[in-house]
Amino acid sequence: MIKNAKWIWLNKRAYPNVQKTTTWFSAEHKQYICRFAEIEKEFVFDKKIAKVVIEISADVKYFLYVNGQYVGVGPVTPGGDYNCPLSMPQQYYNTYERALDENRVHIRAIVQTVPIVQCDMTQGQNGFVCACKIVFTDGTSQRVYSDETWRCRLLSAATRGGEFDFTQKEDEWNSAEILSSVWDLYPSEIENTIEERILPKGKKTLIVKAGKTQTARYELDKIYSGYYAFEVQAEGLYELNIYDYEKNETQRERRIAIKGDNNLAFRSLVLSSAGGFDIEIKNCGQTDVKIENIVFLFQHYPCLSLGNFVCNDETLNKVYQMGKHALKICRQSIELDSPKHQENLQCAGDYHIASLMNYYADGDTRLTRFDIVRIARYLELSDGYMFHTTYGLIWVQMIYQYYMHSGDKDVISIVKPALEQLLNRHLKTVNRQGLIDKAQNYMFVDWIDVDGYSMHHPPKALGQTVLNAFYYAALQSAAKLYGAIGETDLQSVYNRRADEVKHAFECFFDKERGLCFDGLTDTDEETDWKPKNPQKRYYSWHSNMLAVLYDLAPKERQKFIVEKVLNDETLIAPQPYFMHFVLDGIYKADLFDAYGLSQLRRWNYMTEFGKGLVEGWFDCETYRYDYSHVWAGTPTYQLPHKLSGLKIIKAGFEEISLKPNLFGLEWANIRIPSPKGVIVINLKQGQTPCIRVPDGIKYTIEE
Predict the structure, then answer these.
(1) CATH topology for the 308-684 domain
(2) CATH classification of 2-188, choosing from 3.40.1090.10, 2.60.120.260, 3.40.190.10, 3.40.47.10?
């Protein structure tokens, strides 16, 4: 339907400077001021309407209203990479269905002109397109499309993304101008985001006397992602500011600045991440200013929440639920690292953890699939380049885990070209022994500072071992994926490359210490994201736990390595992100009984705050943490996974094994979603596990 609609925009003569835009990372981005256009059309009929189906897209972003009611925000982002100014080759449109009971349809969209956050993407040209199917109560229907009869104007009050001057005179309406399309549109493959109304703790109504200034604080019970909304009653000039924060006022930032002189129904236009906020009003008029109906509109991808975990340890229960909430606020039209940063799809290390959390906590795999596909489309555009080298390799594991949990074999063929380009790009950096030796960079490892180096982009001596471990895991995952679609030749190629890495990996072992060191100290090319290589050996949890997790360390040495790592205070220790791999390594070495829950209880640090997950446990000189980061949520995956001992033997839960273990807890109840239904496991110390597995899943229970 949308293929028949015309792309339209503001009249060039009326708005010559609001036509072109640019990506977030382009050199010209700072030269653009974000404005908002208003586009509308009303259709009136001589019979009643039952519903309207709307297909819509815009560049950069739209907020859609039908008959005065908010409907949705979009389009879904096509994805991209950090520090990449390129536009993505494919764009998307969203579809909405709205029930009506009148004879008119009024379509109104507010369209953002410039990227405000990293994951806002553009083709460099502002534009709007819309197609509507109007279904009448008599069963007939009519289609209408965006064209030159629609009208447009600049929303003069919105001077920037968070700055508004409602004392400005509204612009005159102009007829829309038809554009030549630069957009290759495809339907969104996921559901539209939804909203929940969150009522903050604070005064329900603010009344500010003439000439006075007043500030009121509003606390949210958790950190939420979303938009501010409220109503103002005023007959004179006032200034209103909103300052928000995730944890406390010492980190608060001004999010909204409003200048007004009349009544106002306000809804913000930039996704925020807040655990609380202050409203400051300066009444410059002669009569009272009244602010009421103050709400936070929680925006997120629809959640099924089919999975759950609860046990006798309240700390672990809180940790699990905090991760579940972090997953929810980060699931937008892509998996975000956090609603604070809103980074793009290159952060596959974050999204790998989020996807595993989702398999156990929610059960809807469509967003994960779409993320995987959009990352593939970017990699095809970039010839396999990803800014963070480890994240590209972790993406391969993410594909394999998605296939095993969903049984969706089709996705493997879709991502195959990108997979080949990614791994062939890394192959060019491999030495004769099979190890990555001349990497483009060694990032990302962790948010840690070591001897003045950031482990975000460490030198070779601090990052080579980790990168090769992820390379090995990626090669193994690729081999399994190709085996699943019958590509046995490619399966053999990647198994052979993986064997070469495993054999050559021995060069990283220090026999005297019985541990891996973090990389060779030979000369390495220095770049912006790869510091000069120091002549010093480093030893970390990171290299050693990956060596155990991926069987790069001999099996007979794995328990020793894990225990050595966990008890040696001289080693470089991880932040919450990398603890995901640490916990998997502990389980791999069959030491979860001794160390697993004690490591998970370290998250008690986060439950003391209680509103969100902090990005790091200890300070990093080069970086400021947020408190809404999904990568810190691995316990939401670890707890149900490890206590159930679930192992998927055949993709899509065709065959599984379970190895339930309380690891010292008194009891635990677990619900794990699968494509065939929810697996229920109830454990109680001293009693036989009570297990219910849906029909269609072949399963065994291991002792």
Answers:
(1) Glycosyltransferase (1.50.10)
(2) 2.60.120.260
Question: Mind listing the pLDDT tens digit for each residue in 195-229?
Answer: 999 999 999 999 999 999 999 999 999 999 999 99
Strands 253-260 and 163-165: parallel
| Residues 6+ away with beta carbon under 8 Å from 100 | 49, 50, 51, 52, 66, 67
**Does residue 134 carry a pLDDT above 80?**
yes
Report residue 283 CA to chain centroid gap.
40
Q: What is the distance between the alpha carbons of residues 400 and 395, in angstroms, rounded to a whole number?
A: 9
Structural Rg of the chain based on CA atoms: 27
125 secondary structure, DSSP code: B
> Which pLDDT tens digit goes with each residue over 318-351?
999 999 999 999 999 999 999 999 999 988 999 9
Q: Is residue 516 within 8 Å of residue 547, measured between CB atoms? A: yes
Residues 6+ apart with CB under 8 A from 121: 23, 60, 77, 78, 79, 80, 87, 88, 91, 115, 344
Mean pLDDT for the chain?
A: 96
Q: Is the CB of residue 571 less than 8 Å from the CB of residue 541?
A: yes
- Indicate where the chain has its CATH 2.60.120.260 domain(s): 2-188, 195-300
Record: fold of 195-300 = Jelly Rolls (2.60.120)
d(CA 34, CA 158): 9
54 residue type, one letter: I
Is-contact 393 673, C-beta < 8 A? no
Residue labelled with tokens 């500010």: 208
Instruction: Tell me if 689 sits within 8 A of 683, measured CB to CB.
Output: yes
DSSP-derived secondary structure letter, 4: G
Contact by Cβ (8 Å): 427, 478: no
pLDDT at 297: 98
The pLDDT of residue 620 is above 80: no
Q: How many CA atoms lie within 13 A of 555 on its CB side?
A: 2
510: left (phi over 0), alpha (psi -120 to 50) or beta: beta
Helix (H, G, I), strand (E, B) or coil at 668: strand
Q: Where in the chain is the domain with CATH 1.50.10.10?
A: 308-684
Q: Are 210 and 287 in contact (CB under 8 A)?
A: yes
Q: What are residue 650's DSSP bridge partners?
A: 655
Query: Do residues 225 and 628 touch, judged by C-beta distance below 8 A?
Result: yes
State the Cα angle at 216 between 215 and 219, rounded to 5°: 145
> Rounded to whole angstroms, what are the CA distances from 276 to 256, 319, 507, 613, 698?
14, 21, 51, 15, 48
